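Pilot study result, target chain (293 residues):
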Amino acid sequence: MRFVAVTDTSGNLPTRRIRKADLKIIAFPYFIDGREYTCLDTDSFHGDEFYARIKAGLKVTTSQISPQQYMEFYEPWLKQGLDIVFVCMSSGISGSCNSARIGAEMILEQYPQRRIEVIDTLGASLGEGLVALEAARLRDLDLSAEEAAVRLRDLVQRMFNVFTVDDLMHLRRGGRLSNMAAIVGMVLNIKPLLKGNEEGKIVSFAKVRGRKKSIEELAARYDRLAVDPEHQTVGIAQAGCREDADYLAGLLRRNRPPREILTVEYEPVTGSHVGPGALALFFASHKQVRAEV
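Predicted structure:
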């Protein structure tokens, strides 16, 4: 092994998958009534209860990971003579990716022979997690950190992050929605389609009437844009809407079934920003896919 594959909890991977891939995880904190929590074990996270509480008015806040925390996290592997490939949440929605880079620059002053590659996934949830799994696969092929980083950055450009939400106010309050003019009236049952753009920012790019139609539009984009789906793992993330996720998975299998569909519940940090009812789809496409509508 020439490098350690590292990611953060916003990658939304199941605990059993993390252990199997031997991924190392740093946790984002979240706060309820002033008390700090982390969610390193997604298998024990009770998502239905969490999102029901948010729907009922529970306020959840989040914060970034500091450069100092990243330095402390990196150092044990550097001491062992290992390089690091860190797969992080989009710089377009969080400053933590920049903190990860700052922390890397600072700690490498003490370990000038080592290398830390910070991979900005321009995404979150499984848009990040699937890239992290690929990092683990490349590690097992005994690639160098530099060689793996080239392949991972290529995958980032091809990873389409597309989703729909029940209520845009969660994204608005957290400052995660870039084109505020796209906010639509929920009274009319108009549902937005959102994506991660070329800068990793969340933008609304279409509006459809009704929840079922919004899910079908996600599947339609998969049918049109997925490249070699029979050879890839496709990701679905849901926030308290398991039946909708199952419906979407069925649509994906109808025309162009992928090798695997990995369905997860949004973990608390990313989930508190997208809100109850969020449903997201992640798959690999061509290099210009982030500009697609």
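One observation from the pilot: The first helix runs from residue 15 to 21. A full batch analysis is planned for the follow-on phase.
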